[in-house]
Each structure stands twice: as structure tokens, then as C-alpha cells.
Amino acid sequence: MSTRQDCVARDARDALAPLRGRFDLPQGVIYLDGNSLGARPIAALDRARQVIADEWGTGLIRSWNTAGWFDMPRRLGDLLAPLVGARPGEVVVTDTTSLNLFKALAAAVHLQAHGAGSARRVIVTERSNFPTDIYMAQGLSAWLDRGYSVRLVDSADEIAAAVDADCAVLMLTGVNYRTGYQHDMAALTAHAHAQGAVTVWDLAHSAGAVPVDLHAAEADFAVGCTYKYLNGGPGAPAFIWVPERHQAAFTQPLSGWWGHAAPFAMAPDFAPCSGIGRALCGTQPMVSLALVECGLEVFAETTMEAIRAKSLALTDLFIDLVEQRCASHPLGLVTPREHASRGSQVSFTHPHGYAVMQALIARGVIGDYREPAIMRFGFTPLYTSFADVWDAVEILRDILDQRAYDVNASRGAVT
Ligand SMILES: Cc1ncc(COP(=O)(O)O)c(C=O)c1O
Ligand SMILES: Nc1ccccc1C(=O)C[C@H](N)C(=O)O
């Protein structure tokens, strides 16, 4: 059985430990919610000051050219690309994940309808997917008004059968936001292709959390967040990946001027840009977009393999300690024990999950709560230590042993 000293010793041996110094985390906080909002890179404050004071304040309109503003979605996309197995010129950082899902789904439907099985009208996804993914698919289907519908499956085991001769698109989230279950992207993509369907992957809980190789998986389209594991900042623009092999056929209905081949030709007709630029729509929030680089540059100092090894060690330790030290309490593990099926979070149910989470937060252990009864703990190897895991479990044990939680705790808009 581990001790706190063992954890401290592991931290001393941990090659990633120094990277914690790249983040500003408040004293007395153990932050286990980087799967929802990543911590702040120290560099972000100076970068924000530079964008606001120098680039905006002094540079003014000139900064679209002189500060690289106009090219920033592409430049950041190229920096992000290696983290998900994409190539230069295949990713842009832009818009929100929801909007990028809409574009990717529209492109996938179009690609599929112009391929072999044009009569297919079903978008398959999971009922347990993050709601915005389902809502965007429902919204697009209704808007198309061509008989498209969304088919929701209830478990990962049912996906293969649901991708049948009617299925146009298989849209999945690589790591489930609630359970931390990780799909086998390569196997499901291969199955979808064998059935004649196109795939759209949401990497919100994968990018920066687990190694992803979009090309090896032969995926078709992907989107994801930068404000979670990539530490881009609250509401930071998301990303969309369109592999080179699909770019010529990639067509999406949000045909704004940033996706035009020559935006400043100011032509009255839309002509899409030839490459990944056609996934853009309109003007981006430059202050927010610029900060994404501060999160990405930390990843340049390590590898996703090193991050994954530590992530699994942290989540294994958390699961073991909770099961040993909180054994008398009604906690249920909903995250897979098998490494291959686990993302970088651990979720436990507790009948008073919301109240227990509020008590944890009050004592500086920040995780979050998702219906039904799920306490969610995100593990971010860039700034979470083994001693953090020990301390978080001790505080959880104490709260449970003392029943030091208020079952009538009032709920904020965000849980
Ligand atoms: C799987 C998944 N997709 C999308 C989103 C968010 O999309 P958006 O940034 O558009 O709110 C989240 C989290 O908010 C998510 O967990
Ligand atoms: N964007 C947010 C805004 C406010 C509160 C939470 C979020 C999240 O990102 C939630 C996250 N996607 C989740 O996995 O639950």
C-alpha cells in the first residue's frame, strides 16, 4: 500500500514535475478539473498584455498583418497538429467546438451523399455523448430537411451494429466526458468505412490528454476544445481537422469571408480557399486566440507518450487509494480500469455526489459534478503531482468519514 512519502518520492523522480512551474495555480488548491477548464499558463498574462497594449493599442489595424493576426488560426493549427496526429495545413484553431461540429458534420454528410451510398440518412452517435454534439447533429438534420435523423445508441457495444446500411455518419467523442471511457478510434473508423459511413471525432477530452493519431486511424474529420487539457483559457477558440485527402471535397455551409480564397478581393461570390482555410468562417477573438499558444508551447517540452504514462499512473493511484481508503463508503467507479479504455479522468458515483463535491471544493480540491450522481476528477500530468492525488483522497476520506457535506447544498448554474 502506498504512503504519502511514496507519492512525494514519485514526484521527485517525475520528469514532468518541473512543468508545473509553467502554470499559475493558487496556493492551497488541488486542481482536478483541467478536463473542463485547464489551468492558466504563467505566460498567458504577459501575452494578453502584449496583445492588448502593443498589438491592439499601438499596432491597431496594422496588427492583422504585422502581428500575424490574420494567419493565427492556421499557425496555431500547425502547432496543435502533432498532438493529434495531424499534418501541417490540416488544422485551424477557430470558432467553438459546437460550430466546428456543425461544419464537420455538414461536410461529412455531403461527402457521404456524393459517394457510394447516397440514400443513407442516419447520423449515429451515443446517447451518453456530450449534449452539444447530439444537439448540433439534431439541428443540422432538421435544417437539411432531407430525411436525416440522429440515431442514439445506449452502449459502446451497440455502435458496430448501429452503423448499418442506413448510416451516413458515425459521430463519436473519443473520451466520454462523464465516464472517461475511451473508444478505439482506429477500430471504429475501420468498421464505419467498411459499412460505407464517414466518421467525425470530437477530441474535446482527448487532445492533450491521450495520444491521438488521426492519420493512423484513417479518421475523416475531427474537432476539439483548446480550453481543457490544452490550457488555452476560458472559451478559447476550438479546432477543426480536415485531412488533406478530404480538403478538396470539404464543403460547409458557414461560408464566411475568412474561408474565401481571396477575402480581400471582396468578390460578391463565395469561392472557397483551397486548403484548410475553407473551414474558417469569420473574424476570430484575437485576445483569446493568442493565448492558445501559451498552452500549446508547454506541450513542446514533452511528448504525449510521457504525458500518457503519467496520466495512467495518476489515475491508477487515485482509483487504488479511493478504493482502499474510502472502502466503507458507497462510491462506485464508472471509469474503466483497463488502460486502453480510459481517458485522463476518473469518475465515481456517490448518492450525495453533488454535496460531496461542494465539500471537496470548499476544502480546495476542485473537481466537478455531472448528472447522475457523478463526481468527476480530471488528471492533468503537466501540473498534477502524485502528492496531490494522495492529499485529495485524504480530504475526500475525511469528508466522507465525518459526513461533512450538506445534502441541501444549493446549486450554481454550472455544476
Ligand atoms: C465532448 C464535448 N464537446 C464539446 C464541448 C463544448 O463545446 P463548446 O465549446 O462549443 O461549448 C464539450 C464541453 O463543453 C465537450 O465535453
Ligand atoms: N465549456 C464549459 C463552460 C462552463 C462550464 C463547463 C464547461 C465545459 O467545458 C464542460 C465540459 N465540456 C464537460 O465535460 O462537462
UniProtKB/TrEMBL annotation:
Keywords: Hydrolase, Pyridine nucleotide biosynthesis, Pyridoxal phosphate
Gene Ontology molecular function: kynureninase activity; pyridoxal phosphate binding
Co-factor requirement: pyridoxal 5'-phosphate
Record GO biological process: anthranilate metabolic process; L-kynurenine catabolic process; L-tryptophan catabolic process to kynurenine; NAD+ biosynthetic process; quinolinate biosynthetic process
GO cellular component: cytoplasm
EC number: 3.7.1.3
Modified residues (N6-(pyridoxal phosphate)lysine): 228
Pfam families assigned: KYNU_C
Pathway: Amino-acid degradation; L-kynurenine degradation; L-alanine and anthranilate from L-kynurenine: step 1/1; Cofactor biosynthesis; NAD(+) biosynthesis; quinolinate from L-kynurenine: step 2/3
Reactions performed catalytically: L-kynurenine + H2O = anthranilate + L-alanine + H(+); 3-hydroxy-L-kynurenine + H2O = 3-hydroxyanthranilate + L-alanine + H(+)
Annotated NCBIfam families: kynureninase
Oligomeric form and interacting partners: Homodimer.
PANTHER family xref list: KYNURENINASE
Full protein name: Kynureninase
